[in-house]
Amino acid sequence: MSSLLKTLFFQNKKRLLSPGGGSAVAAATTILSIRRRLMSTGAMLPQQSPPFTDSCADDTLCPTLDFPGGSVPFTSKMNFISGSGEDEGRIPCYRVLDEDGNFLPATAGVHQVIGEEMAVKMYSTMVRVETADTIFYEAQRQGRLSFYLTSTGEEAVSIGSAAALSPHDILMLQYRELGVLLWRDFTLQEMANQCFGNKCDYGKGRQMPIHYGSTHHNILTISSPLATQIPQAAGVAYSLKMEGKDACAVTYFGDGTTSEGDFHAGLNFAAVMDAPVVFICRNNGWAISTPVAEQFRSDGIVSKGKGYGITSIRVDGNDALAVYNAIRVAREMAIKKQAPILVEALTYRVSHHSTSDDSTKYRPTQEIEHWKTTRSPVARFRKWVEKEGWWNDEKESQLRRDMRKQVLEAIQEAEGMEKPSLSELFADVYDHLPPNLKEQERSLRDIVKRHPKDYPADVPV
Ligand SMILES: Cc1ncc(C[n+]2csc(CCOP(=O)(O)OP(=O)(O)O)c2C)c(N)n1
Ligand SMILES: [Mg+2]
């Protein structure tokens, strides 16, 4: 049976794993259709419910209802369950360090799981992200890039989590997780090539800036439509399970993205299929101009895990050590139990949503300042690393100087590089170009010929 299941799966694998091609729903549908085909051939039996026993015909004498999926206790109290969680209070947030980088009394000695090398690499990657974000943002303002978006204030979520994963884990990002890419040694040059859409960009200049992806780094290409990565992650996790891999799928998404149908489909699918996936929600308080108070009535995202039967935790997203610890354990559980885990990281989007946004129009500047200074995840982590005796002002100035130089060099190199040729715009989707695309290509070439000044000179026609 397992070889038939595998054969059917591999026949469909390309569709399931293709980042842009196979949509999330298609992935789910394909896996379900594989199961259905196996059941119809008798190769796989549907999961058996325990046999129904009418052992208790009189409900008043019976303490439980024998129901498909498991028995349910009866009660004579008419209790409505509170939807907001106000009866139980809000779900607490796990943290390790206080704002000054000191271990909290309850966590001292218990949680110090990383040593100097890891701590310094994590801090250096945070500075790398900060520097890249600042310079790329400025480059966009100078008109050298069409678009950019920073992860300022959220560095601990991406770097703390990436550090806790294995390079074999397959990642599906949203767009505000540059730290994850840089942690995996995706270079500043690879990043700059993508943002400038030059001939070395893996996407051949066909995506907006910041839509990174790299097969070599096990990172699927980012796509603009929100939440598509969530059911895809469930499908990828299911494939890892079928191949018996010692790895999991990990997907990142924002608070606003949880309002998409794909979020709910993805979580339910992963739970029902026992797929080893870690869902990481960066709850940064805002979805462009929509605050979380207008996004959902639940106690954040962590409370939704229970509804899908998923083990979940809420963590302080500005505490890199807490994120690291939580994700390390979440990963272990996902693989060992072959089950999904949901992690909600509470953080804050300090930057504007993107270069197309001005967030001072819809939120108080004091709120932004508070998170930028008092609650900075980078400053907090630096304080801890310094207290351990692993960092000092001299190392700091040297690192910042080096990073600035590296980012500027990468931008200069990427900007000067030739763009992909015009024909690439039509390649890689169909084996043979269909007539409508042939016509579009012909028409585009005709327009470029007639209006050469309106088209960039560095795009080979
Ligand atoms: C399906 C879909 N709807 C709307 C958008 C437009 N959009 C882009 S980003 C964004 C906000 C997402 O917020 P969140 O998930 O909280 O992520 P954050 O930007 O805060 O990191 C919206 C509405 C989109 N890209 N895709
Ligand atoms: Mg958000």
From TrEMBL:
Ranges for domain Dehydrogenase E1 component: 124-420
Q: Which Pfam families match?
A: E1_dh
* Localization per Swiss-Prot or TrEMBL: Mitochondrion matrix
Q: Look up the record and give one Gene Ontology term from the biological process aspect.
A: branched-chain amino acid catabolic process
Q: What is the designated name of this protein?
A: 3-methyl-2-oxobutanoate dehydrogenase (2-methylpropanoyl-transferring)
InterPro entries from the entry? Alpha-ketoacid_DH_E1_comp, DH_E1, THDP-binding
Q: Where is it chiefly localized? A: mitochondrion
What family does this chain come from, according to its entry? Answer: Belongs to the BCKDHA family.
* A GO term from the CC aspect: mitochondrial matrix
Judging by the UniProt lineage, the source's domain of life is: Eukaryota
Organism source for this protein? Cuscuta australis
